[in-house]
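Batch job 17 of 40 flagged for manual review because the log was empty.
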Amino acid sequence: MFRSSSPFAKVALAVFAITAAAVAGCGGGGGYGGGTTLPPGPQPSSSAVPSITILLFARNVGMVNDPTFGTVQGFSQQTNSQVLGLAPGQQVMLKNGDNVTHTFNVYSAYPTPPPPGGTLDTSASGTSTLAAGYRSGPIAPGQSVGPLTVTNTNGDLFIACAFHFGSNGMQDGMIVNVGATPGPQASTASSSPPPCHYYC
C-alpha cells in the first residue's frame, strides 16, 4: 500500500477515490442511467396509415346522396366523395388535399348550419380518437393530422367542415363497424361550378 505524508499525495488519493466512486455510480444496473426507461423503439411511419382526403368543391370530387347521411361531399377514402367506412380501433390520417383550409368535425347528428358566412367550432378538441366531439382544428392545404384512432363504438357518425358546412354543405357520414367499407364514390360533377357563397 502506498504511504506518504506529502499533502500533495493525500490530495491525489482523495481525487482518485472521488473519481472511482463516480464511475462506480454510473455503471450500475445496465441500461441508460442506471435503470431509467429505455427510449421507445421505432414507431410506424404515418405514411403507412390509411388516410381520409378532404376536398371541397363538388366539381372536383362530386356529391352523392345517401339514405342515412343525405347529400355528402368533400370527404373520401378513395378519390371522389363517399360515405366513410371504418373499423373500430382502426388508425387513420386526415389529409387536406385542397388549396383552402378545412376542418374535420365529428358529431352524433348534423349540427344546425350556421348562417351564411358563419362557422362551426374551428378549435381543435385536443383528442386523438375519432368519435363524436372530435375536432381537428384548421388543417392547412397539403397538411395532415394523425394518426387518429377510430372509436371502439359501432354506429353512425356525422362529419362536417366547420368553415364550409353552412356555406357549401361540406358534410359526410362515417360508418363504424367491423368490416365497414367506404360507400360508393360520387361521379365527378360537370365542369360548370356549383353554387358557392364563399371560398370559391
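Reviewer: the log was empty due to a logging misconfiguration, but the result itself is present. The longest helix spans residues 7-27. Unflagging and moving on to job 18.
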